[in-house]
Amino acid sequence: MTVTGSTLVLTATGTPPARTAPAAPSTARAAGRAPGPYRRLFALPGTRGFTAGNLVARLPMGMFGVSAVMMIAGQRGSYALAGAVTATGVAATAVVGPWTARLVDRHGQARIAVPATVIAVLGSLSLIVCVRTGAPAWTLFASYAATATTPNIGGMSRARWTHLLRDSPAAHHTAMSFEQAADELCFMLGPVLAAFLCGVLFPEAGTLVGAALLLTGMLVFTSCRATQPPVTAQPRRGSPLRALGPLLPLFLAMGVVFGSMEVASIAFLDLAGLGAAAGLVLGLQAAGSCAAGLLYGTVRARSLAACVCALAALMTLPWAAAAGGSVAALSCALLLAGMATAPTMVTAMAQVHARTPEGRLNEGMTLAVTAIFAGIAVGSASGGWVVEAAGPVCAYAVPATAALVVLAVALAGRPMRRPSDRSRVVRTAAGPDPQ
């Protein structure tokens, strides 16, 4: 025992006295293995319920585009019309999405998300009817544009985690890693499920099932009121667009990576004669990102600069593999390249959380997602142009270059520390953060 100033320090040199026993962990916990970070995460009350609804509602996000293309092209015989309709939907989402997110922040998730989802589902059903009945082409554009009211379910789920784990940065990092892995999983399985339903059942099946899943999942998600972030009546100060201005070019360039990589890979695999099996190879990139995202949630968060350095390096691998002409090598390269995307996205989204003004988190995350979608459109167009002009191998230079742009934007911005370095930590009687 020593006394320093007014502080009494007790140092145990042997068996702790009996009176300190209540502060020690229970015998069962001490004897057994400590629960992992994800097990601790979903042990929190209410988290399993809203996560289940979130996953069900998120799966259609990877289904609607493929379903619309297959349905319109199958019924109208025009891929140009199908592509134009889906492009209009993406453009409408870029405009409407941030406004929907702002309403969610202002009035609450359940109050806004449910009617917005109903409008989106009605738009999907209207698209089916218009395609089926041979309605004029403009009705297809109007119907699909109505689906732009679909709330950003991933953003709302992340907002719930942020509310629940606001005093535990390590657990918050694990939750954000899980959410990114869920994004990758849904965008990997969604197109496969949509293609299966439209091809095996009937052309409208993918859109019908997607609409049903979206509405069901959203109702389950919003019914979990206990975990919903509270809505404050205080005036909202600051602009998310202004606060995230330095980060939006980074998300735009990330979208270019995604869009151009997909187009280049499809073109290369089609030239190699894989045909329908190309989807399995493309899924390796999402699988690698999903696995890396889950793993990243169990370790300490890295800086954004470190993540984008790894991204820039690994995005050169598909280009090198395609130059060698080996499909097997390209498959391995896509798997490895995918493993760099989830950590980068998780760390970049942590910066969105740190920079977005209080009470406007959904709007801030939706702006980031909108920038990604815009980048995907640019990447798809530029990748397709390079494929036509110089071939699929050269098209892999587009995602590699875009990854370098991501690196340049990250290094040119203000120094960005790890989320755990900037977060406020409040210790409670429950003890320190277990991670």
Count of β-strands: 2
User: Could you name the ranges where pLDDT drops below 50 across 5 or more consecutive residues?
Assistant: 1-31, 415-435
The biggest beta sheet is recorded as: 2 strands, antiparallel
**What do the pLDDT scores average to?**
77
Record the strand order, biggest sheet.
1-2
Secondary structural class: mainly alpha
Question: Helix segment count?
Answer: 20
Mind explaining what this structure looks like?
This protein is globular. The two termini are 30 Å apart. The protein is mostly helical and 435 residues long. The longest helix has 32 residues, at 169-200. Helix content is 71%, strand content 1%. Helix 5 runs antiparallel to helix 6. It is built from 20 helices and two strands. Strands 1-2 form a two-stranded antiparallel ribbon. Mean pLDDT is 77; it is low at 1-31 and 415-435.
Please write out the topology.
Blueprint: E1 2-4, E2 7-9, H1 27-31, H2 37-41, H3 47-58, H4 64-76, H5 79-107, H6 109-133, H7 137-146, H8 153-164, H9 169-200, H10 205-223, H11 240-243, H12 248-271, H13 278-296, H14 304-314, H15 317-324, H16 327-355, H17 361-390, H18 392-395, H19 397-412, H20 419-422
Antiparallel strand pairs: 1-2
